[in-house]
Design brief:
The chain is mainly β and 310 residues long. The protein has helices at 2-18, 33-36, 140-143, and strands spanning 48-55, 65-75, 77-91, 94-110, 113-129, 148-164, 167-173, 179-181, 188-190, 193-200, 202-203, 209-220, 226-235, 239-248, 251-262, 267-276, 287-295.
Length: 310
C-alpha cells in the first residue's frame, strides 16, 4: 500500500507538470533568487555561498524534502557574473536532481543603477524506483516498467535583474523550452515558468531599524498564478525577522515566519516555519527551512550597502 501511494504521488506529479503546475518554491525566496533568475549572479560584488534545507509538511508520509546549494561570484570583471546551483528533492520514492550554470553581464553599470542580463543552462534528472516486486497492474504497468522510471532532460533560461539604489526588480524565465517529461504511457510537458521579483530596504530615520519588503510572482500558462509577499525588519544590520503570506489559487496556501542572524560579516544563519492554511493543515505540522550563507572575498564587506542583503 505504501509503494502504491508513492506511485500515486509520481503519477500525480507528472500529470501536474503536464497541466502547467508550479515548480518547487522556498520560503527564503528572497535569498534563492539565483535559482530563478540568472541575471542575479555576480550582483553582490563578492563570491557568496548559500545552502538550504527544507522539510515540507512535517508528519505527512512521503512529503517533499529538499536540499539546495548555490554559489555565485564576479568572474574576472566586476561586470561579469558566474554561478552554479545544485538541488535535490525527494518525495517518497521519487527523486529529482537539478543542476544549472548561470552567466550574467552588467549592461548598465552606473552609481546606484545596475542592469544585468543573464542566461542559464540546466539539467534535471527525475527517477522513481519501486523495485521489481511492485506488482503493478495494467494500465499502470504500461506506464512505468517494473516499477522504475528514469528521465534526464535539459533546458535553458534567461533573466533581467535591476538594482536601483535601495531596491531591486527582476524578471525571468528559468525554463524557456517546452520539454516532454513522464513515461510513454503518461506523457506530460514541462511548461515555461515566468517569474517577477522585487524588494527594497527602507531605513527608518533616527533608528537602527530598516523595513525590508519582498515579493515573488509566479505564472504558468493554464495554471493559477502564485504570489509570495514578505515584510521583514532589519535591526542594526544583524537581525532580520518577518512574515510572509503565500497566495495560491483562490485561498492562501500558508503563512510563513522567518528570522536571520548575521553571525559576523561573512557568515549568516536563517530559519523559517510555514503554517499551512489549506486542507492539508489537518494532516501535517507545517514546514521548516534552515539556511546558511557565507560571503567570501572582502574581509570587511559593507553591511550598510543594500547589496549585502540583496
Amino acid at each position: 500500500m505504501k509503494r502504491f501511494f508513492y506511485l500515486f504521488l509520481f503519477v500525480a506529479f507528472t500529470y501536474s507538470v503536464g497541466n502547467a503546475q508550479h515548480e518547487a518554491h522556498y520560503t527564503h525566496f528572497m535569498y534563492t533568487k539565483q535559482l530563478l533568475n540568472p541575471g542575479y549572479v555576480g550582483s553582490k560584488g563578492s563570491p557568496n555561498l548559500m545552502a538550504l534545507y527544507r522539510k515540507q509538511w512535517i508528519g505527512f508520509d512521503g512529503a517533499p524534502e529538499s536540499q539546495l546549494v548555490t554559489f555565485n561570484t564576479p568572474f574576472f570583471d566586476p561586470r561579469v557574473g558566474f554561478g552554479v546551483a545544485v538541488s535535490r528533492q525527494i518525495t517518497g520514492d521519487i527523486t529529482e536532481y537539478l543542476g544549472n550554470l548561470s552567466y550574467s553581464y552588467d549592461m548598465i553599470n552606473q552609481d546606484g543603477f545596475n542592469l544585468r542580463f543573464g542566461i542559464m543552462g540546466a539539467i534535471k534528472h527525475l527517477s522513481l524506483s519501486l523495485g521489481a516486486n511492485a506488482n503493478l497492474a495494467d494500465p499502470v504497468a504500461n506506464q512505468i516498467s517494473n516499477g522504475d522510471f528514469d528521465k534526464i532532460g535539459g533546458n535553458v533560461g534567461a533573466g533581467l535583474y535591476l538594482n536601483i539604489k535601495d531596491a531591486y526588480i527582476g524578471f525571468s524565465v528559468p525554463n524557456i523550452l517546452r520539454r516532454e517529461i513522464g513515461s510513454s504511457g503518461n506523457p506530460a510537458e514541462e511548461q515555461p515558468h515566468f517569474y517577477g521579483m522585487a524588494g527594497a530596504i527602507i531605513p527608518i530615520p533616527d533608528s537602527k531599524f530598516s523595513i525590508y519588503p519582498n515579493a515573488l510572482f509566479k505564472y504558468v500558462d493554464n495554471a493559477p498564478y502564485s504570489l509570495d509577499v514578505n515584510l521583514s525588519a532589519i535591526y542594526n544590520n544583524i537581525f532580520t525577522f518577518g512574515a510572509s503570506y503565500r497566495h495560491g489559487q483562490e485561498n492562501g496556501d500558508s503563512i510563513d515566519f522567518l528570522a536571520n542572524y548575521q553571525v559576523n560579516r561573512q557568515f549568516g544563519l536563517g530559519v523559517a516555519y510555514d503554517l499551512t492554511l489549506s486542507e492539508l493543515s489537518n494532516h501535517n505540522s507545517g514546514s521548516v527551512e534552515v539556511m546558511l550563507s557565507y560571503l567570501f572575498g572582502k574581509k570587511n564587506p559593507d553591511m550598510t550597502n543594500p547589496r549585502f542583503f540583496f
